[in-house]
Amino acid sequence: MEKGLLIILSGPSGVGKGTIRKHIMRDKSISLSYSISMTTRSPREKEKDGVDYYFVSEEEFQRNIDEDNFLEWAEFVGHRYGTPKSHVEDLRNKGINVFLEIEVNGASQVLAKAKDDRVVSIFLMPPSLKALEDRIRKRRTEDEELIQARLAKGRSEMNLADHYQYVVINTRVKKAAQEIVDIIKSRL
Ligand code: 5GP
């Protein structure tokens, strides 16, 4: 059986990866399994443990690093985020396509390691810097200092696009999601 695809969606902070991911996961025309990450940050309103993330303590996260349980992990504005490795591998070995939505440092780790041609890397670009700032501000779940940190990070992260196989510009959510679905289908 052919191994499932590993699809990596990344891009600068605030570009709208999460929103696009939800659209793609709802698309009935392709079968994808979303890899739920582990994080040390606290849940936002409406977020559920085991659905949006596995919310864990610093100690538990560290234990998982020590036990080499992550495919990748990264620190992102004060918190740590990681992709549990065994789950991803088990699914792919069963032929199931796995979808990761991760920030750029973690994505670089996966791209450096994964040399097989069943990896699909997609970089989501904002239409402009202004659009990126507007998105980050509209979220309004964070204080100004954190917003500034995310903005600065987002700007520098935009330079990494050429490390990816595909670049999709997030002008409209539906359109960008459809483009990504089409990319995935072309690689199935
Ligand atoms: P948020 O706190 O807004 O949910 O996520 C912050 C950033 O962490 C987003 O860019 C998101 O894509 C990224 N992220 C979520 N899970 C993971 C993960 O497992 N690994 C890495 N490297 N980044 C992640």
Overall mean pLDDT stands at 93
Distance between the termini: 13 Å
Query: Superfamily at the CATH H level?
Result: P-loop containing nucleotide triphosphate hydrolases
CATH architecture, by name, is 3-Layer(aba) Sandwich
Present as ligands are: guanosine-5'-monophosphate
Task: Tag the structure with descriptive keywords.
188 residues; alpha/beta; Rossmann fold; 5-stranded parallel beta sheet; 4-stranded mixed beta sheet; 41% helix; globular; binds guanosine-5'-monophosphate
How would you describe this structure to a colleague?
The protein is an alpha/beta fold and 188 residues long. It has a single domain, classed as 3-Layer(aba) Sandwich (Rossmann fold), CATH 3.40.50. 41% of the residues lie in helices and 21% in strands. The chain contains 7 helices and 9 strands, in the order E-H-E-E-E-H-E-E-H-E-H-E-H-H-E-H. It has helices spanning 17-26, 58-66, 85-93, 104-113, 129-139, 144-157, 173-187; strands at residues 6-10, 33-34, 38-39, 54-55, 70-76, 79-84, 98-101, 119-125, 166-169. The chain has a 5-stranded parallel sheet, sandwiched between helices. A hairpin with a 2-residue loop joins strand 5 (70-76) and strand 6. Helix 5 runs antiparallel to helix 6 (144-157). The longest helix is centred in the last third of the chain and has 15 residues, at 173-187. The radius of gyration is 16 Å and the shape is globular. The mean pLDDT is 93. Guanosine-5'-monophosphate binds at residues 13, 17, 37, 41, 72, 74, 76, 81-83, 101-103, 105-106.
